[in-house]
């Protein structure tokens, strides 16, 4: 389990280990807890026979300097395919990671850039068919408009084992651009 650490204003700062979270608790730097998932760490025994215990929440707000994270999400295939829910943005089918490619909507050969808003997940077949043409030139259409993930979506992309209460917190701040999130949503076969 990773703990989602927030700053005191509630912005996500990092995914941290249980040991790192325990350090924040022991330094009395946890200002608030969110979420329902708890984990109990057990420590040593004192001379009266009592074992120390520390209960950790899955989401903690910590004291410290409030600095907004950079918000920049690196564009890589792992994050791109996860953003697109492992769907080909042309045929709408779900694929495993090795079966997906990064498609440049405006091809690089025509001046297209390697940005979140110009890239989409595509299966090998659709990407080969499209080649170095725009979707219009190839007679294809996107099932959704590509977008740059916000800070909360960034933390979703960074962690593959998100607890349900962490997902509720992050998901409540997702942009409305994730229109295909539930399309063809079976198991996360790419994970």
Question: Which key features would you list for this structure?
Answer:
hydrolase, 4-stranded mixed sheet, alpha+beta, 191 residues, 6 helices, two-stranded antiparallel sheet
Please compute the radius of gyration using only Cα atoms: 21 Å
Order of helices and strands: EEHEEHEEHHHH
**What's the N-to-C terminus distance?**
16 Å
Mean pLDDT across all amino acids? 89
Specify the overall morphology.
elongated
Low-confidence stretches: 182-191
> Strand fraction band?
15-25%
Largest sheet: 4 strands, mixed
Backbone structural class: alpha+beta
Summed up, the helix count is 6
Strand order of the largest sheet: 2-1-4-3
Q: What's the total number of strands?
A: 6
Q: What fraction, in percent, of the residue positions are helical?
A: 10-25%
GO molecular function, one term: endonuclease activity
Keywords: Endonuclease, Hydrolase, Nuclease
Protein name: Restriction endonuclease
Organism: Paraglaciecola agarilytica NO2
What does the model show?
The structure is a single chain. This protein is α+β, with helices and mostly antiparallel strands and 191 residues long. It is built from six helices and six strands. It has helices spanning 18-26, 77-83, 124-130, 135-138, 151-158, 164-171; strands at residues 3-6, 12-16, 30-45, 51-62, 100-104, 119-123. Strand 1 and strand 2 form a beta hairpin. The relative contact order is 0.17. The model is unreliable at 182-191 (pLDDT under 50).
């Amino acid at each position: 389990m990773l703990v989602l650490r927030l700053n005191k204003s509630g912005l996500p700062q990092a995914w941290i280990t249980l040991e790192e979270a325990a350090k924040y608790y022991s330094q009395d730097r946890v200002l608030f807890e969110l979420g329902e998932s708890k984990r109990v760490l057990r420590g040593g025994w004192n001379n009266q026979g009592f074992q120390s215990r520390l209960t950790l929440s899955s989401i903690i707000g910590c004291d410290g300097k409030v600095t907004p994270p950079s918000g920049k999400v690196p564009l890589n295939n792992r994050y791109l395919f996860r953003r697109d829910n492992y769907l080909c943005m042309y045929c709408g089918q779900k694929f495993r990671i090795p079966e997906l490619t990064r498609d440049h909507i405006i091809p690089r050969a025509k001046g297209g850039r390697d940005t979140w808003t110009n890239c989409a997940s595509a299966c090998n077949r659709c990407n080969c068919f499209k080649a170095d043409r725009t979707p219009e030139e190839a007679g294809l259409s996107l099932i959704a408009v590509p977008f740059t993930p916000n800070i909360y979506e960034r933390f979703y992309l960074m962690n593959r084992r998100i607890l349900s209460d962490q997902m509720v917190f992050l998901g409540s701040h997702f942009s409305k651009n994730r229109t295909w999130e539930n399309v063809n949503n079976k198991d996360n076969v790419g994970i």
